[in-house]
């Protein structure tokens, strides 16, 4: 499995660009080895306050589907945790596999989850625009939440119901009220480490905050992700699956935990 997995990823259609950035020392995703993570008592609880009315639209960008938010003011923000400043929510999206055996970007003790949610935030206290924040070491903060196969997820179903309308690349629909807090697990525990975007430009600008507890979704909900297409209307259909980057070397990094 692991060798075919590695081979598969070396030839992975998504990754024409180099699998690792030359000179990159803090690339993402990584495997989180639970016993190697270090409890840091200085880490604060993460404070999350999202305003559901800042939700704008949901769209298929040919790589994932994402829900974008109005980030022109400090309305949907996170603060605390490992962060020095407060960060504004810009969008959230998912990564998933063709089958339930893989799909997440991060792994825990080399275990894949079938999917992973990313909530992307940027440091609007220090940087004037998102585009500038993307280029800075403390520019972005992404919350990662693992999805595991289990019970039906009510909050996710609202998103799933919208997916048929954005089946093709570059389709978008209005999405005016959604509170992404409903996608967060109740347990406050997280791991955190200094990493990068997992899509081009792969810049090393992300403080990753990975929730320890996964959320549960059912098979139909995962299958709904897999009916999306990478391709535009009229092109030969390619199912949107396996849109995750291969694991990157930990290099000289320590993963800290907010829990013992
Ligand atoms: N897996 S991840 O959290 O690293 C991630 C994945 C996709 C995207 C995205 O652009 O949709 C993003 S993004 O919204 O942060 N955009 C990064 C690329 C970008 C840079 C500058 C301007 C626009 C987009 C992040
Ligand atoms: Zn992502």
Task: Describe the protein in words.
It is a single chain. The chain is globular. It has 4 helices and 15 strands. A hairpin with a 6-residue loop joins strand 6 (77-80) and strand 7 (87-96). Residues 5-12 have low confidence and may be disordered. The chain has 260 residues and is α+β, with helices and mostly antiparallel strands. Strands 2, 3, 4, 5, 6, 7, 9, 10, 11, 12, 13, 14 and 15 form a 13-stranded mixed beta sheet that branches. A two-stranded parallel ribbon has the order 1-8. 39% of the residues are buried.
List the helices and strands and how they pair.
Blueprint: H1 2-10, E1 31-32, E2 38-39, E3 46-49, E4 55-60, E5 65-69, E6 77-80, E7 87-96, E8 107-108, E9 115-122, H2 130-133, E10 140-149, H3 154-162, E11 171-174, E12 190-195, E13 206-211, E14 215-217, H4 219-226, E15 256-257
Parallel strand pairs: 1-8, 2-15, 10-13, 10-14
Antiparallel strand pairs: 3-6, 4-5, 4-11, 5-7, 6-7, 7-9, 9-10, 12-13, 12-15
The protein binds 2-[(2-phenylethyl)sulfamoyl]-4-sulfamoylbenzoic acid (45I) and zinc ion.
């Amino acid at each position: 499995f692991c060798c075919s997995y590695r081979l598969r990823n070396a030839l992975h259609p998504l990754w024409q660009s180099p699998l690792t950035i030359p000179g990159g020392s803090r690339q993402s995703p990584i495997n989180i080895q639970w016993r190697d993570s270090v409890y840091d008592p200085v880490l604060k609880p993460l404070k999350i306050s999202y305003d559901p009315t800042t939700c704008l639209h949901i769209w298929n960008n040919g790589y994932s589907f994402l829900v974008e938010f109005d980030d022109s003011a400090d309305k949907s923000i996170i603060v605390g945790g490992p962060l020095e400043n407060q960060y504004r929510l810009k969008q959230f999206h998912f990564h998933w596999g063709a089958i339930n055996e893989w799909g997440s970007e991060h792994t825990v003790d080399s275990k894949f989850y079938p999917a992973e949610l990313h909530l992307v935030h940027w440091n609007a206290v220090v940087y004037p625009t998102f585009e500038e924040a993307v280029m800075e070491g403390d520019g972005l903060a992404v919350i990662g939440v693992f999805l595991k196969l289990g019970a039906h997820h009510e909050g996710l179903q609202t998103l799933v119901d919208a997916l048929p309308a954005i089946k093709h690349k570059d389709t978008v629909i209005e999405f005016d009220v959604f509170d992404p807090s409903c996608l967060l697990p109740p347990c406050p525990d997280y791991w955190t480490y200094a990493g990068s975007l997992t899509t081009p430009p792969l810049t090393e600008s992300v403080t990753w905050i990975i929730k320890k507890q996964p959320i549960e979704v059912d098979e139909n909900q995962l299958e709904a992700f897999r009916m999306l297409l990478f391709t535009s209307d009229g092109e030969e259909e390619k199912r949107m699956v396996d849109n995750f980057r291969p694991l990157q070397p930990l290099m000289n990094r320590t993963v800290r935990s907010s829990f013992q």
